[in-house]
Amino acid sequence: MKQTGRYLVILAFVVAFWNTIVIKPLKIFAVFLHELGHSLMAVIFGNGIQGFRINLDESGYALTLPKSEFSAFMIANGGYLGSVLFALLILWLKRTALKKYILGASAILLLGVSIAYGKSVFTIIYAAIFAGMILLLYMLHNEKLNDWVIDIIGVASAAYAIYDTFVDTILLQINLHFNLIPGWGASQPLTDAVQLQKMTHVPAVVWGIIWLVIACAAFYSTIMHGKRSTAARGKKKAA
Q1: In which domain, by residue range, is 59 found?
Q2: pTM of the full predicted structure?
Q3: Mean predicted lDDT score pLDDT of the chain
Q4: How many domains does the chain divide into?
């Protein structure tokens, strides 16, 4: 199966089983990438983090330590943009010589950060289970299965970041203004976009649209690059 076709199959599967327990572990991993994005920006531009948490209900938070308005701005942007870029980095690294280290490095990172900074028992338990599953996968020595797992994690995480940006930022803000769905978002939650709205006076929905455009463009570029890479390999074999 061509790489682009595989991405589309995975995306269709993820969408079809979106609200089932089958996809929940992948969503939680995407939440980890989101909080990792905040944390990385806090390390680069701020004074680091005090801890982070991911929950079974797919929520989470990072206790960051900004040192200026600029660092707070970068940290707030780091969640959605970081999560989708981390997801696409996984798919990009799969095309390099580092492919065999992706899952192992992801497991070590998740487990190490969770033990050092995790603020809940669930965070550590999830990280331990994830690491155990990756260890079992390596023990099987099945390269094709390894490839599929990398693609599933990457595509599902990117899809979740895009979905979360669209639904929990853009649609939520629209509903808050027009009350299209009574009862949904009755109060203004303190999301990343709302924090940026307070900092910049630019409406939260605008930040959601910016993130969504960047995420979709990056995802499309990754898929098209995979298509071009497959075509190039086909030409080499033909020659």
Answers
A1: 3-231
A2: 0.87
A3: 89
A4: 1
